[in-house]
Amino acid sequence: MKIQEVMPRLGFGTYGRWKAEGIEAILCALETGYRHLDTAQTYDTETEVGTALEQSGLARAEIFLTTKISTDNYAEGRLIPSLETSLSHLGVDQVDLTLLHWPSPNGAQPLAAYLEPLLDAQDRGLTKYIGVSNFTIALLDQARSIAGEGRIATNQVELNPFIQNKKLAQYCADHGIMVTCYQPIAHGRLGDDPVLVDTASRYDASPEQLALAFELAKGYAAIPTSGKRERIASNFAALHLKLSPEDIALIETRDRNLRAIAPDWGPDWD
Ligand SMILES: NC(=O)c1ccc[n+]([C@@H]2O[C@H](COP(=O)([O-])OP(=O)(O)OC[C@H]3O[C@@H](n4cnc5c(N)ncnc54)[C@H](OP(=O)(O)O)[C@@H]3O)[C@@H](O)[C@H]2O)c1
């Protein structure tokens, strides 16, 4: 089955959801109805996710679980053991999706050196789907030629009304790669834009709900996070918000290519 058929479009990000408070927030997300959790080796939240999953009493099959390989584990012989460690932190035999968290910093390693072990991990059943994160069009071209068509399931990138990554998103659509939006609510900064605030108020919604509804309407997945019960719930309620084509077009005009996460060792963005 294609990832588009199985990945719940609105997931819960877990960056910052640490320790007892973090477990509580993840549990709250599961109680609210989120069935897709996003973690990463570098977030240090895999154990919290595993504990919350266990405490929730939900069956493993009900949850879509994503983790990401740290670039530190791209060195020869490290990727598969690191994923096995992630599985043990999460308390599962297999994750649904494993992503390469970033292209190799400064392009120091050739992509094949760390994509091939990920393909191997999938062949061994450690992960159902594989994908990438923070990849540009040029890197996706390379990844598709190494992995073969249809194997790269998603590209997780910074995407919200302020940075819409239109060219990259079109490329992904053309090649059957799902776009997953991180920082989908611009880290709580959407209220700075009067057009978004005004548009949201016409739906009796928050700018965050508006942004999430926009991303879902575009066919993307989105993984907002919050440590606050009421925001966890109100973000999830965006699933019920349907925007008019005119308002989708209006939100498209708010794109400012405003990238918040751009480390100096990162790729040459599109
Ligand atoms: N692949 C990557 O390189 C990458 C990079 C960054 C993030 N991610 C993933 O994407 C997830 C989400 O990204 P993110 O955490 O950076 O940003 P985000 O989800 O866009 O924003 C989270 C921030 O917004 C606040 N917030 C949440 N709901 C709100 C609401 N309804 N109204 C106002 N403020 C609200 C939260 O504060 P409170 O907690 O106080 O509510 C938090 O500070 C992460 O958790 C992680 O899983 C991936």
Automatic annotation (TrEMBL):
PROSITE patterns: ALDOKETO_REDUCTASE_1 (PS00798), ALDOKETO_REDUCTASE_2 (PS00062). Belongs to the aldo/keto reductase family. The keyword Magnesium does not apply. It comes from the Bacteria. Keywords: NADP, Oxidoreductase. It comes from Devosia marina. GO terms for biological process: methylglyoxal catabolic process. Pfam families: Aldo_ket_red. This is Aldo/keto reductase. The keyword Repressor does not apply. The record marks 68 as: Lowers pKa of active site Tyr. Residues 19-252 form the NADP-dependent oxidoreductase domain. Substrate binds at residue 101. The active site is at 43 (proton donor). One of its GO terms (molecular function) is methylglyoxal reductase (NADPH) (acetol producing) activity.
